[in-house]
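re: ur question from yesterday

yeah so i grabbed the chain u mentioned. its 372 aa long if i counted rite. heres the sequnce exactly as i have it in my notes:
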Amino acid sequence: MSRRRLMIGGRIDRYVGSAFLWSYATAFLVVVGLVFLIDMAANVDDLLEGNGDGSRQPIGLILRFYALNLPFLFLQSGPFVTLTAGLFTVTRLLRHSEIAACLSAGISARRVMGPVFVGGALAAVAMFGLREWASHTVIHKRDAVLTKLESRESERVFEDLWVRDLAGNVARLDEFRPATGDPPIAEIRGLRGTVRQVGRMVNIDAERAVYTSRGNGEGWRLVNGIRYEGGANRAESEVEWLEEIEFSPAVAVSFHRARTNPLELSFSEALELGRRDPDNVVYQTLMQYHLTFPLANLVLLLVGIPLLMRHERARGVEGLARALLLCVFYFGADFIFRNLGIGGSLDPLLAGWTPVLLFGSLGIVLFDSMRS
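ran it thru and got these structure tokens back, copy pasting raw so excuse formatting
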């Protein structure tokens, strides 16, 4: 074997990388397709349920919802897709005795698998980026469609929502509508705010608030806004703008998502909510989770590939089964530790990193023991 072929990006790397890419596409269709069908089978009856007048929801609207929900289904199963692609790649190389040929030529199995692990690292970065992008763009369109399917309403309404700003001031929103009217604007119907000030208590009430332009920025314009200061003999004054409690419509939506489906928060959203409520273990745990879960793309490859390569072709099914079983164990451990962190029973840092460190250490040992 010439030295040229061992260069990074050489013939072997291109061959194995191409095999992994095609295997990833196949694994994506199989794994995400299976998750898609399971989710559809569990929920499609409710989505198809007829309206009170006997009409049924348009099929096109349901298909639009599932198209918009596809990125989030992938984010749930992304590491399993990567592991499956890696196992498909190794199985193909073993079946054609290509790994044995490389070993005979003095090339270690670890070197041959280099492009697969590079692919796993790229998949981890892509998962993190996809979550950030989807949680700020696609999710709003998906939730708007879901509202039409579930409540037959054209706009979303969040009731009894609490928000907090960086200074610890809080506001209760009786009804928050993130996009109402034409053109759509963010609107609050019924607002009560509490402002922290040394030596006195300040409350702000308003019948309605609209997020609109103000000078060089934007803010909440109040309708019938009243500011109360002091105790029993408190002073009242009219107020036009909500100045002492700072939050945007996007932050209010994040607080709602944290209450209803916290796992769909992005890392940046969890970070922002954690800054506003630093004692909340849910946000602290989710910040760690969004950092560690993409790393499962690499951790599962470190564990699964050596297990498969330890067996000869005749026993490859056994190695494949063991690799997939360890994947199930990883997801189980991740689920348990994450819930312990969210419930406050375990430090968020430990809850997020323990599964990665445990299985990653095992994977490094197995990877180091591969035939060279």
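noticed a couple things. The first helix runs from residue 11 to 48. also The chain is about 60% helix and 15% strand.
anyway ttyl
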